[in-house]
Amino acid sequence: MKDRFLAAARGEATDRPPVWLMRQAGRYLPEYREIRADYTFREAISTPDVAAEITLQPFERFRPDGVVMYSDILVALEPLGLDYRIESGVGPVVMDPIEKPADIPADRYPIEETLDYVGLLLERLTEEVGEAAAILGFAGGPFTLASYAVAGEPSRSHVPVRGFRAAHPEAFQRLLDTFADVVAEYLQFQVEHGADAVQLFDTYAGLLGPEDYREYVLPHHQQILEAVDVPTIVFVRNMGGRLEMLEETAADVVALDWTVEMEEAREILGEQPVQGNLDPSYLLGDPEFVRKQTRSVIEAAGPEGHILNLGHGLDRRTPVESVSAFVETAKDFEW
User: Fold this and answer.
1) What is the pTM of this model?
2) C-alpha span between 136 and 197 (Å, rounded)
3) Band (155; pLDDT cuts 50, 70, 90)
4) Interval 18-31: pLDDT, tens
5) Cα–Cα distance, 321 to 287 (Å, whole number)
6) DSSP of 21-42, one letter per residue?
7) Which residues are CB-neighbours of 7 under 8 A, at least 6 positions away?
8) Nearest in space to 76 (alpha carbons), one of 224, 192, 249, 245
9) DSSP 148-159
10) Would you give the DSSP letter of residue 269?
11) Spatial separation of the C-alpha atoms in residues 111 and 105, rounded to whole Å
């Protein structure tokens, strides 16, 4: 429920860990595949009634403590006039990618107009869910958005954006400034329309070296998260050994990927609330395996300031029964 989630985000002890999953609504659910047969991805996320129905599908099945809006990190490109599509077998494709400093958008359109459908979605979710769960918004972080905008499509090594940083360091800073300003405003827009907490996904920023992360990304994370009036969660993958940098972001909660030992993270971060961090591939196992591994994460995290989640998003091949086992293990747990 909402109160349990918010208490954990404040670092308080809870009777059991609140639980939700990244990519909670998606292709692993048969009801999702059924509704998506009638809509493209862009149509689905930009039609509030459809997006609300999809968002609530896992809530109706599993009753997690957090309901995360059905959307995508790339919607933050829209106020900058950058267009994109989701291409089957490829993923997000940004038309007219940023190849040189002159390509960085100079104009910005009002978020309340370009992303009004997100506000309407959050208002519908607030009405439907009430106090039963926290309504969660999110946005992509500046480096991750820049990676897509520069490469034009998903990149395994993210060399295009890293190369842009090497070739045009001042323009790279300007590009991150541009995205950070939009994301900060966008997250606060979500709060104004009903989000109880928000997560910043700068998933790929961990590929930067420590000096580059501290110089280019950390100040933007601080800027974004300090601008938001509700509990905030920061997620950056591959930050094992650099968790203290995530502590400096000003996020209320640090989300951990599965490569981080939960007990070690608790020692490093002290009283900092954490989220995570079961390996998503474990949910491809049978329910008993899932229950065992989930209990292990809960016990390692302890009773104070822990939100149970995966270390990244659900795989589309995940059995529904395994998701149910994950959520129910949290619900059945007692300290």
Assistant:
1) 0.96
2) 5
3) confident
4) 999 999 999 999 99
5) 7
6) -TT-SSTTSHHHHHHHTTS-HH
7) 13, 14
8) 224
9) HHHHSS--SS-H
10) H
11) 15
* 183 within 8 A of 191, measured Cβ to Cβ: no
Q: Which is nearest to 184 in space by CA: 236, 133, 154, 219?
A: 219
Buried b (16+ CB within 10 A) or exposed e, 207-233: bbeeebbeebbbbbbbbbbebbebbbb
- Report the 10 Å Cβ neighbour count for 234: 25
pLDDT 10s digits, 158-183: 889 999 999 999 999 999 999 999 99
DSSP 307-324: EB-BSSPPPTT--HHHHH
- Please answer whether residues 248 and 210 qualify as being in contact, where contact means their C-beta atoms are separated by less than 8 angstroms: no
Based on its alpha-carbon atoms, the radius of gyration of the chain, rounded to whole angstroms, reads: 19
**Active site residue ranges:** 23, 27, 36, 72, 148
- Domain range for residue 235? 2-332
Distances (CA, A) of 54 to 41, 128, 137, 154, 323: 11, 13, 15, 25, 16
CATH number at residue 194: 3.20.20.210
> Model confidence over 39-56: pLDDT tens digits?
999 999 999 999 999 999
Number of domains composing the chain: 1
